[in-house]
Amino acid sequence: MEFIKIRLSNDFEPMGSKLEKTISEMFRSMNPMFAFSKNSWKPQLDMFETPEKIIVIAELAGVEKDALELEINSRAIRISGRRLLNPPAENGRYRLAEIQYGTFDRALYLPAPIDTEKAEAAFKWGLLHIHLPKVKFETRFNIPITGE
User: pLDDT tens across 61-113, in order?
Assistant: First the structure.
C-alpha cells in the first residue's frame, strides 16, 4: 500500500485575489489554454457525509501521485498539485484543446469538525479518495442552573 502525503495545517493561505480569479476565468472560458493565475484549473470534487465521517473524492486524471499535496485541519482540506502538459506530436498542432494543464489548488471547508489523526487518503484510477472521520463528542456535562 502506498501512502498519500497529508500535511496538517492550522490555517490556509489565501489563494489569489478575487479580481485575478475573475479575469482568469473570463479568459479561460474563451480559450482553455489561457490563464493569468498560477491556479490554472480546478479538479471536480464530490463530498459525502455520513454520521461517522466525511468522504471527499477528487477527479485528478493525468496527475501523478507524487505531484499531489493534501493539507488538512479540523475544519477544512486543501488539495493542490500539478498536471503536466503532454506536448503534441512533432509537426502537429492542436485542433481542440479542452484538457486543462498546470497547477491547481482547491480548498474545501467541511460541514463538521474532523479527527485529523485518523484521516486517510488513497489515489487510484485518477480519483483521490479522502476519508475524514468526524470528531466524536461523547462527553456530556450536566450544568446546574442557579437562580430563582
Answer: 999 999 999 999 989 999 999 999 877 788 888 888 888 899 999 999 999 99
Q: How much is the pTM?
A: 0.68
CB-CB contact of 72 with 8 (8 Å): yes
Q: Are 9 and 78 contacting, i.e. CB atoms less than 8 angstroms apart?
A: yes
Give dist(CA 83, CA 100) in Å, integer. Answer: 8
Q: What is the largest CA-CA distance in the chain?
A: 88
Question: Domain 6-86+98-133 class?
Answer: mainly beta
User: What is the tens place of the pLDDT at every residue in 36-45?
Assistant: 445 479 999 9
Residue 27's identity, in one-letter code, is: F
CB 41 within 8 A of CB 104: yes
CB atoms within 10 A of CB 111: 10
Whole-angstrom distance, CA of residue 110 vs CA of residue 112: 6
